[in-house]
Protein: Fe-S cluster biogenesis protein NfuA
Organism: Algoriphagus iocasae
Amino acid sequence: MESELKSKIEFALDTIRPYLEADGGNVRIVELTDDMVLKIEMLGSCGSCPMSSMTLKAGVEDAIKRAIPEITKVEAINLTVA
């Protein structure tokens, strides 16, 4: 992943990190695929919270796609669908 793009992603994540951290969670970048799918890992309480899928879509994915429109999708590698 090129460093400029990674910096943009981290900047976008930094806008929502305070909200995640307030609930004992966080997020880290795992991979950006060639077809512009960002894979992340939900950390701390976000990894096991029943609302994590909502946080992913309404929080993380929204922030990322607003900042970097070329990213087509954001997936958490450690969330299971209930």
